[in-house]
Write a structure and sequence with these properties.
By secondary structure, this protein is mainly β. The chain contains no helices and eleven strands. Strands 2, 4, 5, 6, 9, 10 and 11 form a seven-stranded mixed β-sheet that branches. A four-stranded antiparallel β-sheet has the order 1-3-8-7, with no helix packed on it. The chain is elongated and about 50 Å long. The relative contact order is 0.33.
Length: about 120
């Protein structure tokens, strides 16, 4: 089994910045893609940013230019840094990873429990 543990977030000011971390632990052979999603009440979970094992990244238009996703493969950890925060960035942020647990296994999808980010104006 694989666990994803997010940290960071909290109550932040508009115009400020945040740094989220997500560490994967457990039975891990390799991690393909690591992503950050966010969700507000009554809305679908939306992709914020993703990073492949190669290092290639993609971002939602709403955060492009403000967010940077990175990963440390030696620590099985993904980071999300975002600046120029807006109240619209308020959401629960979830970490997601596609993990291969053994050399012969399929890849499986795992989610963290989420961390609340609240941006006040």
């Amino acid at each position: 089994q694989v666990q994803l543990a997010e940290s960071g977030g909290g109550l932040l000011q508009a115009g400020g910045s945040l740094r989220l971390s997500c560490a994967a632990s457990g039975r891990i052979f390799s991690i393909n893609v690591m992503r950050w999603y966010r969700q507000t009440p009554g809305k679908q979970r939306e992709l914020v940013a993703g990073i492949a094992s190669s290092g290639s990244t993609n971002y939602a238009d709403s955060v492009k230019g403000r967010a940077t996703i990175s990963r440390d493969n030696t620590k099985n950890t993904v980071y999300l840094e975002m600046n120029s925060l807006k109240p619209d960035d308020t959401a629960v942020y979830y970490c997601h990873a596609i993990v291969q647990t053994t050399p012969l296994s399929h890849e499986y999808s795992y989610w963290g429990q989420g961390t609340q980010v609240t941006v006040s104006s």
